[in-house]
Amino acid sequence: MARRKIDPTFSPYTDETAVRTIGTLSIENGTSRIALHGSLDITRDRAGLRQARALKSVLDAIVTALAADDLPEAVAEEGEASETVKNPFA
């Protein structure tokens, strides 16, 4: 697995390696999609406000990037290439 860099500025759809982490929520950048993994508890305190603002900043950047492009109706699904290998136990 490739090591991912944590990018506090997070420029959506520009690379396949940047990850923004807010709490235990990871937002993984990609050139055709952005993946969200984990969870985020936004508490009613200053820490929760910081996390909500960080999440809003990332989502605003994503929306801005999407709105700036002439988008297709849907992104084609990328299938993983498979390779048949000889059974080492046979």
What does this structure look like?
By secondary structure, the protein is of the alpha+beta class. The protein has one domain. The chain is built from 1 helix and 4 strands, in the order E-E-E-E-H. The chain has one helix at 46-67, and strands at 5-6, 18-22, 25-28, 35-37. It has a 4-stranded mixed sheet, covered by helices on one side. The longest helix has 22 residues, at 46-67. The radius of gyration is 17 Å and the shape is flat. The model has no long low-confidence stretch (mean pLDDT 87).
The radius of gyration over CA amounts to 17 Å
Structural class based on helices, strands and sheet pairing: alpha+beta
**Largest sheet: spatial strand order:** 1-2-3-4
In this structure, how is the largest beta sheet organized?
4 strands, mixed
Would you list the SSEs in sequence order as H and E? EEEEH
The domain tally reads: 1
| Content of β-strand | 15-25%
Number of contiguous helices: 1
Helix content: 10-25%
How much is the average pLDDT? 87
Please provide the count of β strands.
4
Which word captures the global form?
Answer: flat
Q: How far from one another are the termini?
A: 28 Å
Low-confidence stretches are none
At a glance:
This protein is of the alpha+beta class and 90 residues long. The chain has one domain (5-67). It is built from one helix and four strands; from the N terminus they run E-E-E-E-H.
